Amino acid sequence: IFMNEVFLKYLTAPTITSGGNPPAFSLTPDGRLTAKNADISGNVNANSGTLNNVTINQNCRILGKLSANQIEGDIVKTVGKAFPRNGSYASGTITVTVYDDQAFDRQIVIPPVLFRGGKHENFNSNNQQSYWYSTCKLQVLKNGQEIFQQPATDVSRVFSSVIDMPAGHGHVTLTFNVSSYGANNWTPTTSISDLLVVVMKKSTAGITIS
After folding, report:
1. Which residue windows are transmembrane per the record (predicted)?
2. Of residues 63 and 113, which shows the higher confidence score?
3. Domain of 146?
């Protein structure tokens, strides 16, 4: 029977298949739906399955556990910058602000920053040898409060830190001040390694420490 148009109040059929070869749509008695394309304007509820090559255009919330072999994105954020210099010596300020814009606790990790001054020879008018020192000083502030300050001459000093950042406790601003000076107001020669700041989610999943 071939019908151009038909209105059926109820339809019961063991299998429904569209035209075409192969069919673009089919529904079998066991509830299996096969379709080449689908536009769904309402809700989709599924208990299992597989999605390949999909894009989530807007926000997605995962209430359960997420396991992933590869992740590209901002689970871990890093920022790096070289300290300012004035010719032969380090001098200036770097300010880093980590915004309290996530719902989970995070940690701010600062890998080692090495800084040092120097020891210099000096000869007076009588050709007598003496030494003078360049000093490099690093000061670190967290939200305006000093958490580190040390000078270094000819022996390197190191600063590194792990700072907890609980969610909802406000932004964290870190200020790194480096300054240099020489004995007798002579021009110093100092050095300091680049600053790297790593921000990551705080979690102990899969880790024990004792």
Report:
1. none
2. 113
3. 76-201
pLDDT value at residue 139: 99
* 32 assigned to some structural domain: no
Q: What is the 3-state secondary structure (H, E, C) of 98-162?
A: ECCCCCCCEEEEEEEEEEECEEEEEECCCCCEEEEEEEEEEEEEECCEEEEEEEECCCCEEEEEE
Is 210 part of a structural domain of the chain? no
* Res 117: pLDDT: 97
Residue 7 falls within a domain, yes or no? no
The partner residues of 133 in beta bridges, in order of sequence, read 119
Return the minimum-mean-pLDDT range out of 87-91, 101-105, 123-127.
123-127
Residues 155-176 have pLDDT tens digits of 999 999 999 999 999 999 999 9
Extract the tokens encoding 80.
């790096």
Rounded CA gap, 200 and 108, in Å?
A: 7
Full DSSP string of 8-21: -S----S-EE-STT
Percent of the chain at pLDDT > 90 equals: 53
Q: Which of 196, 135, 207, 204 is nearest to 161 (CA)?
A: 196
